[in-house]
Amino acid sequence: MTITVVLPAHLRTLARVGGDIAIDVAVPVTPRAVIDAIESRYPMLAGTIRDHATQARRPLVRFYACERDLSHEPLDAPLPDAVADGREPFLIVGAMAGG
């Protein structure tokens, strides 16, 4: 399956891409499968979205799809059908922090 992934500006710069990326992902389409495909195609992004050792999502990175926050869902939970079939993008967003 080919899905569209929207990366935050700093990761687009690091990956040297100008916009959204299209990633081929094996079924079932899960956040883990998407991140695996991103890190395979863009090795410079390895460790920026998830921790190398624990494989957990980085604290200031959020996942969204179909207007839902999927950040706290298990990494092996299937993404919505609209993402899996390419109708909707998978968004990786840098969370805002500070005060």
For the structure shown, list the relevant keywords.
99 residues; Ubiquitin-like (UB roll); five-stranded mixed sheet; 22% helix
Walk me through this protein's architecture:
By secondary structure, this protein is an alpha+beta fold. The termini are far apart. A hairpin with a 2-residue loop joins strand 3 and strand 4. It has helices at residues 9-15, 31-41, 81-84, and strands at 2-6, 21-24, 61-65, 68-69, 90-94. It has a 5-stranded mixed sheet with strand order 2-1-5-3-4, with helices on one face. The chain is globular. The chain has a single domain (2-94), classed as Beta-grasp domain (Ubiquitin-like (UB roll), Roll). It is built from 3 helices and 5 strands, in the order E-H-E-H-E-E-H-E.
Structure at a glance:
Helix content is 22%, strand content 21%. It has helices at residues 9-15, 31-41, 81-84; strands at residues 2-6, 21-24, 61-65, 68-69, 90-94.
